[in-house]
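Hi both,

Apologies for the delay on this - the queue was longer than expected. I finally got the pyridoxal-5'-phosphate-bound model through. Below you'll find the protein sequence and the ligand SMILES exactly as submitted, and right after that the structure tokens for the full complex including the ligand.
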Amino acid sequence: MDWRTKLLNPTPRARRDYASLATPVYRGSTVVFEDQSSVKDSWDQADNGYSYGLYGTPTALELAARLSDIEGAHRTLIVPGGQAAIALVYFAYCTAGSHALVPHSAYGPNKEMAEGILRGLGIEVEAYDPLIGESIRTLIRDNTALIWCESPGSVTMEIQDVPAIADAAHARGVAVALDNTYAAGVMFDAFAHGVDVSMQALTKYVGGHSDLLLGSVSARDGAAFEKLGPVYRQLGLAVSPDDCSLALRGLQTLPVRLAHLEASTLQVAHSLADRSEIEAVFHPALPTCPGHATWQRDFSGSTSVFSILFKESVTPAQVENFIEALELFHIGLSWGGVHSLAVVYPRLERPGKDYSGRLVRLNIGLEQPDDLIVDLARAFAAIG
Ligand SMILES: *Cc1c(COP(=O)(O)O)cnc(C)c1O
């Protein structure tokens, strides 16, 4: 054999029994088959065997299986980000003429997709009060195909009565999807509370270090998985094995990080509750958070993100001074990593409420909370 041909047809030399504790990074688009009769082309490789890298390498499938285990799902699909996970759920459940319900407090790009791509395709997405509970039944129509929950809500942190919404939905044969990113898929048991499809941005707590973008979509049962799979395939939601490898590493320290973040975040949130500049602290474990009693009933803990609402007497310019006086808190979007973050929302309206320029979302990182509290006190002093 010519040496050039030999480079492409090597005899593998390294022993194959390297028992690392870490899952290898499997790169690969093509997988080869033993013979023509064993060629297959299935998006469901966990059940049917490997067919093509687009539907996950072993690194991605290992991550999916571990998430399924801790969430109590039937199966999980790994996708390029949390927003891709949201898109997959919409397209799996909604077609032209469908009606869907999404809380006012949902993640911004979820609502943007509702008003943008989905509306263009003839799918009507209606916003509802996140605290509606079982009264959601009055909004369900014959063509309602999907009800989204997100609890707590993005930025305004409303805790939803997911079991009541799921009961009302299931009475009419409607599927319930949950954005379970805040709870990292574990602090709220989606399937025990009646959810059919639970997604999360692995970008946040599973990744945990602000260095990857991934999402997951977990199905309660085979029926939900069969609805998601073909759309997952048609949208071509391939993920990088390197990112999956980082997420697998992140999973190993998730419990330690979450425990530490919960304690630090509570300490910081409590330190802000009595400040004269603050109207309310929206942290699920504080009674000032809308839906706090539901959080006590349904969640096993809280995590690292919460919001503070300045009093109306504090001007938007003063809130900006506050943000810019912070030294340990970086100004940035996203959350769930090791660094503390702060960001103000210049335009933030909810029905009957205008929080524009007054609401600051904080993400607490792994810095010592006493240092963060000193930093915040310095920023309050800088308000003027
Ligand atoms: C960040 C986030 C997403 C989107 O995740 P990406 O990985 O950034 O696409 C979705 N939902 C919630 C609640 C989020 O906070």
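Main takeaway for now: The chain is about 35% helix and 15% strand.

I'll put the files on the shared drive as well.

H.
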